[in-house]
């Protein structure tokens, strides 16, 4: 029993890291997918992706979503996560329009791990460790190199407004991740049911996964309401074009439903600050797909940036002496490592 429990504990960070990396990989298909629906405004992609995907996530989680909405301990975190998600969807695409794809993406995604560490420091009194700082700096540096290598222009619009929108996107994405993690911890069944050892049968009556998915479904379900309205108001012309719908459905089903479901699994095993650093794998996948599918040229500089991102992720994934990449998110008190 003791050995089995130890194996289960040691498997949690590894499983969480893998789940977040796969989620980031499917998120990385988003840019390539939009290539097959030319002429659709970026804000419509955001509204349709999170709006339709949010409705699907809420529908698939069913009763767990309703429990997350009605349980007092989790409800405030669900509301915070939903508000953060709506603001993120709008701010991110506003950043792309005003600051350009390269700079907007760099600032938004690159700032989210730093904001995540600050949010956990303020909200949970968790001090970030040297390993987390080093992994973040290396990965963000690599992501900046990759993004700049793929730059096709400086964009148009008010640059300062675009940079402000990008920083707001990074902050709200980090807040969304933190709120979801707190919402899962507020649901008793999400943290008190032991996780099964790989290769063994699931724990009897285990509801932790369903509770975690319910929090995600509730967050996306609430966020979907204003986003669907936004999609209808701003994207009426794009929504009536039949050839756009395969792309819309891909974005809703794969990056949103599958990606964020896996992200929820990861947040049950690693902290939000670790998860946001691992999600920097997204621009790596996006860059590779841009070369293989879209035909963009990455060059030596771009591939060097990919190497830096991978190095940062590998550093973060290495087990620490405390035995947890980011600590057990269910455990009280400061994380032992991150």
From TrEMBL:
Taxon lineage: Bacteria, Bacillati, Actinomycetota, Actinomycetes, Micrococcales
Membrane-spanning intervals of the chain: 12-30, 36-57, 77-96, 102-123, 132-151, 157-176, 215-235, 247-265, 272-294, 300-318
A Pfam match: EamA
Membrane topology: Multi-pass membrane protein
UniProt-listed PANTHER family: EAMA DOMAIN-CONTAINING PROTEIN (PTHR42920:SF5), OS03G0707200 PROTEIN-RELATED (PTHR42920)
Residue span(s) of domain EamA: 16-147, 218-317
Source taxon at top rank: Bacteria
Species this chain originates from: Curtobacterium caseinilyticum
Name of the protein in its database record: DMT family transporter
Keywords attached to this entry: Cell membrane, Membrane, Transmembrane, Transmembrane helix
Protein family membership: Belongs to the EamA transporter family.
Localization (cell): Cell membrane
SUPFAM superfamilies in the cross-refs: Multidrug resistance efflux transporter EmrE (SSF103481)
Main location: membrane
InterPro entries: Diverse_Substrate_Transporter, EamA_dom, EmrE-like
Regions annotated as coiled coil: none
């Amino acid at each position: 029993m003791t050995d089995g429990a130890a194996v289960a504990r040691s498997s949690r960070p590894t499983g969480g890291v893998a789940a977040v990396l796969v989620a980031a990989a499917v998120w990385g298909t988003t840019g390539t997918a939009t290539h097959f629906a030319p002429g659709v405004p970026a804000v419509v992609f955001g509204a349709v992706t999170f709006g339709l995907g949010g409705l699907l996530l809420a529908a698939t989680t069913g009763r767990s979503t309703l429990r997350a909405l009605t349980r007092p301990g989790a409800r405030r975190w669900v509301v915070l996560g939903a508000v953060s998600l709506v603001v993120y969807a709008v701010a991110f695409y506003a950043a792309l329009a005003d600051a350009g794809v390269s700079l907007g993406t760099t600032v938004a995604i690159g700032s989210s791990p730093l904001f995540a560490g600050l949010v956990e420091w303020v909200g949970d009194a968790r001090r970030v460790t040297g390993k987390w700082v080093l992994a973040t700096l290396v990965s963000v540096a690599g992501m900046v190199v990759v993004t700049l290598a793929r730059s096709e222009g400086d964009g148009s619009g008010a640059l300062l407004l675009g940079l402000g929108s990008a920083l707001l996107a990074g902050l709200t994405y980090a807040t969304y991740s933190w709120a979801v993690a707190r919402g899962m911890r507020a649901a008793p069944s999400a943290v008190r049911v032991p996780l099964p050892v790989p290769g063994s049968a699931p724990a009897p009556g285990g509801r932790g996964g369903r509770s975690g998915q319910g929090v995600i479904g509730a967050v996306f379900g609430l966020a979907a309401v204003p986003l669907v309205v936004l999609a209808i108001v701003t994207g009426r012309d794009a929504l009536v074009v039949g050839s756009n719908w395969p792309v819309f459905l891909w974005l809703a089903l794969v990056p949103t439903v599958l990606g964020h479901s896996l992200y929820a699994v990861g947040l049950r095993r690693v902290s939000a600050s670790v998860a946001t650093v691992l999600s920097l794998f997204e621009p790596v996948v996006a860059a590779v797909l841009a070369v293989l599918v879209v035909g963009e040229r990455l060059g030596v500089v771009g591939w060097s940036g990919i190497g830096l991102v991978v190095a940062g992720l590998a550093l973060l994934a290495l087990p620490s002496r405390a035995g947890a990449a980011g600590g057990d998110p269910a455990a009280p008190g400061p994380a032992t490592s991150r």
